[in-house]
Each structure stands twice: as C-alpha cells, then as structure tokens.
Amino acid sequence: MTLTLVGDTACTTGGYPGLGLRNAAGATVPLTVDRLTQAGFSFPYVKPVAIVVTATTPAEFGIEWVNEPNLPATTLIVTPPNDFSSIVVSGGAASVPENSVVAVTALTTSPLGPPCGLQC
C-alpha cells in the first residue's frame, strides 16, 4: 500500500503503521496486526528506520493475510507511525478472516512491488 504526502512540506516518519477493519455497518472487524521482523511470504523484510516522505517520494508498506477469508469488511483504517489521525480506505466488500491476523512491513521509500508478482 502506498501513502502519499498531502501538502508541500516533507515529513519524517518510520516504523510500522497501525491497521483496523470495519464492516459495511461501521462496526469493527476483529484484527490482529503482527509486525514482520523477517521476510514474509509476499514481501521482503523492511528494517524500521526513519524515512523522509516528499511530494515525489511516497511511503509504502506491505500487508499479508495470515489466515483464510470468511467475514465481510469494507473499510481499512491506516494510522501512520507516530500519528493520531487515520486514513480511511473504502473499496467495497472484501472477505476477511474472523479474528483476522495480518502481518505488516515497516514503512519504506523503496518500492516493494506488488505481492507475488501480481499487479494492483
């Protein structure tokens, strides 16, 4: 997932984003977020370091599902590291696991590429 800068002032950040899920009614879908501390199935290990995000250098992170889908979620909530505001990503109904577990990479300014050679 790519996070782009809003505005003209560069931002220094780093670490792991916070994640949450909501269903169509706005209720929270249970989610456990594990931080990848080694290479995962779809993404390489990303060492959590300070990065500078600019208008031309976005931040990226990868999300890997650990278990199989079976509950509907319509919204992903992303909270950047060291931030109190969240970004709401809505995109229709998606099946996610009950008591879902995901693994997330740290933010990076290096392109992670699509998981498993797929294009988004």
What would you say about this model in short?
A hairpin with a 7-residue loop joins strand 9 and strand 10 (87-96).
Please specify the SSE layout and strand pairing.
Layout lengths: L1 E2 L7 E3 L4 E5 L5 E2 L1 E5 L15 E3 L5 E2 L2 E3 L5 E9 L7 E10 L3 E5 L16
Parallel strand pairs: 5-11
Antiparallel strand pairs: 1-7, 2-6, 3-4, 3-9, 8-11, 9-10
Description:
The chain has 120 residues and is mainly β. It has one domain (2-111). The chain is built from no helices and 11 strands. The strands form 4 sheets. The protein has a 4-stranded antiparallel β-sheet with strand order 4-3-9-10, with no helix packed on it. Strands 5-11-8 form a 3-stranded mixed β-sheet, with no helix packed on it. Strands 1-7 form a two-stranded antiparallel sheet. A hairpin with a 7-residue loop joins strand 9 (71-79) and strand 10. The chain is globular.
Structural features:
120 residues, mainly beta, 4-stranded antiparallel sheet, 3-stranded mixed sheet, 41% strand, disordered C terminus
| Nearest-integer average pLDDT | 83
Q: Tell me the β content.
A: 35-45%
Unreliable spans are 116-120
How far is it from the N-terminal to the C-terminal residue, by CA? Answer: 10 Å
Rg, alpha carbons:
14 Å
Structural class category: mainly beta
Shape descriptor reads globular
Percent in helix:
under 10%
**Count the strands?**
11
Widest sheet: strand ordering: 4-3-9-10
> How many domain units?
1
Largest sheet: 4 strands, antiparallel
In DSSP terms (H or I, runs of 4 or more residues), the helix count works out at: 0
Order of helices and strands: EEEEEEEEEEE
